[in-house]
Amino acid sequence: MNNERMIQTQILARGVSSPLVLNAMRQVDRSSFILPDNLFEAYSDSPLPIGSGQTISQPFIVAYMTEQLRLSPGMKVLEIGTGSGYQSAILSKCGVELFTVETVRSLAENAKRRLESLGYTGIHFKTGSGYDGWEENAPYDRIMVTCAPETVPHTLIRQLSPESGIMIIPVGYGMQVLKRITRNQSSCREEDLMHVRFVPMR
Ligand code: SAH
């Protein structure tokens, strides 16, 4: 298995077709975000441990969520749950300005160090609670949440652009539903995309 085989068999074969997303997946090697002990399964079709009881998401889920976000280069994007930084790298390679928030300090610091050493620019890191979003730079054209709250945090909706802002977020306890929330002025449209299982948002 290698990164390209992973993309062919797990991502293209399951219907992700956005050239922007596929190009980003090709430019980021998942093995750069995996702990040494797990390197032999760097391209496996599953989440993997990244320390502190957290996980890097399944590659398909990363690609699918990124596609469902309907990105265009130049957009301002907020990510909640930096984790390993893999999803951050994919978003960054889609050409957006990224603001990423992680609650576990050691994960945030490792991700920052890793992404900077890989040459990423235009990513802003913050250690803090995702429930607060990142007020100073709001509103965001897009918000991606990669940990699951029990309900959609109002603060994040408020930080979403009222001009067709889109948020992708897993919601629920145990079995979760991945939702796409589209904001237009004061109204929000909510769509259920699929069942997922993320670590809880704490
Ligand atoms: N996107 C990550 C996957 C991260 S797993 C990747 O590609 O590797 C979810 C992450 O959300 C974990 O790192 C966890 O520490 C973080 N998290 C959990 N609750 C949070 C909160 N309230 N605010 C910010 N991050 C949170």
Note the main attributes of this structure.
202 residues; two-stranded antiparallel ribbon; binds S-adenosyl-L-homocysteine
Word description of this protein:
- The longest helix has 13 residues, at 105-117.
- The chain is of the alpha/beta class and 202 residues long.
- It contains 6 helices and 9 strands; from the N terminus they run ααββαβαβαββαβββ.
- Helix 1 packs across helix 3 and helix 2 crosses helix 4.
- S-adenosyl-L-homocysteine (SAH) binds next to strand 2, helix 4 and strand 4.
Largest sheet: 7 strands, mixed
Give me the Rg, rounded.
16 Å
Report the span from N to C terminus: 34 Å
Roughly what fraction of the amino acids lie in strands?
A: 25-35%
Structural class call reads alpha/beta
Low-pLDDT parts are none
Number of strands: 9
- Spatial ordering of strands, largest sheet: 5-4-3-6-7-8-9
Oligomer: single chain
Q: Order of SSEs, N→C?
A: HHEEHEHEHEEHEEE
Separate helix tally: 6
Silhouette: globular
Helix content: 25-40%
Distinct ligands, ions and cofactors found in the model: S-adenosyl-L-homocysteine
- The overall average pLDDT, rounded, is 97
Q: What layout of secondary structure does this protein have?
A:
Elements: H1 3-12, H2 19-27, E1 48-51, E2 54-56, H3 59-68, E3 76-80, H4 86-93, E4 97-102, H5 105-117, E5 123-127, E6 142-145, H6 154-158, E7 163-171, E8 176-184, E9 187-196
Parallel strand pairs: 3-4, 3-6, 4-5, 6-7
Antiparallel strand pairs: 1-2, 7-8, 8-9
Residues 50, 54-57, 80-81, 83-84, 86-87, 101-104, 107, 129-131, 146-147, 199, 201-202 line the site of S-adenosyl-L-homocysteine (SAH).
